[in-house]
From TrEMBL:
Domain HTH merR-type intervals: 2-71
Origin organism lineage: Bacteria, Bacillati, Actinomycetota, Actinomycetes, Kitasatosporales
GO molecular function, one term: DNA-binding transcription factor activity
PROSITE patterns: HTH_MERR_1, HTH_MERR_2
A Pfam family assignment: MerR_1
Name the record gives this protein: HTH-type transcriptional regulator SkgA
Keywords: Activator, DNA-binding, Transcription, Transcription regulation
Gene of this entry: skgA
Length: 255
């Protein structure tokens, strides 16, 4: 049985654009291309895509993924290792969920009491985070390798204090964007764009994306299932709002 690229995109949550990119770089060629030019995938291709997505979840680069898939390493052994690492990540995400739940409860209690927010143990805000290195999309590594290398050099110089500050600033930015969205503020609003400008300058500490790269980052937030879920847990629709604000900024300031 064969499935069209649209079927595979629907089943996997991977966009057709990304599937075509995987074909172009030789990572996931389709089983055949029909006379109409459409790509068709068979069961073996779906299994290969599952492995690609598993390794992407574990932040493995596309070049490294291709090397693994083209090697003679036992696939079951590879999957066992992926499974082990996913269980570790599951436990970390459960801890993050508890962290966010405590924060929500504290904020709601203070709001009900008309009090200023009081944080008795600020270290609890960051339980479960992995601040050792910022997560940067693997596609960035493939499409802008020089920028990726620049970012890695900056990350390697980060101290524990730098990493904690990084997490604080990311969290603060997402909260600001969620507040703008909840208030119905258009993404082109001066205040929203000022927040995105601060985000761009923050990203530039690690690498300097051009207009296309910055838009690509925003699109990744909306397209990648895990990234979308993480942002939408903060506020439903935040992934799309963040993407649209970044596109607006890139068109106005980076083009």
């Amino acid at each position: 049985m064969a499935w069209s690229i649209a079927d595979v995109a629907r089943m996997s949550g991977v966009t057709s654009r990304t599937l075509r990119h995987y074909d172009e770089i030789g990572l996931l060629p389709p089983a055949r291309i029909g006379s109409n030019g459409h790509r068709y995938y068979e069961e073996a291709d779906l299994l290969r895509l599952q492995q690609i997505l598993l390794m992407r979840e574990l932040d493995v680069g596309l070049r490294e993924i291709r090397a693994v898939l083209e090697s003679r390493i036992d696939q079951v052994a590879v999957l066992r290792e992926h499974h082990r690492r996913l269980l570790v990540e599951r436990d970390r995400l459960e801890m993050l969920a508890r962290t966010v739940g405590r924060t929500i409860a504290a904020l709601e209690e203070d709001r009900d009491n008309n009090d200023m927010v009081k944080i008795n143990r600020p270290e609890n805000l960051f339980e479960g985070f992995e601040p050792s290195r910022p997560r940067i999309d693997a596609e960035v590594r493939e499409r802008w390798p020089q920028a990726w290398e620049q970012s890695q050099q900056a990350v390697e110089k980060m101290t524990a204090e730098d990493a904690e500050q990084y997490q604080r600033e990311v969290t603060a930015h997402l909260i600001r964007m969620a507040e703008f969205m909840a208030a119905g503020t258009p993404v082109a609003d001066v205040a929203v764009q000022a927040a995105v400008d601060a985000q761009y300058r923050f990203v530039c500490r690690y690498w300097s994306p051009n207009a296309a790269a910055f838009k690509g980052m925003g699109q990744y937030f909306a397209d990648d299932p895990q990234s979308r879920a993480n942002l939408d847990k903060i506020a439903d629709g935040l992934a799309d709002y963040q993407r649209d604000a970044m596109v607006c900024y890139a068109d106005a300031r980076l083009s």
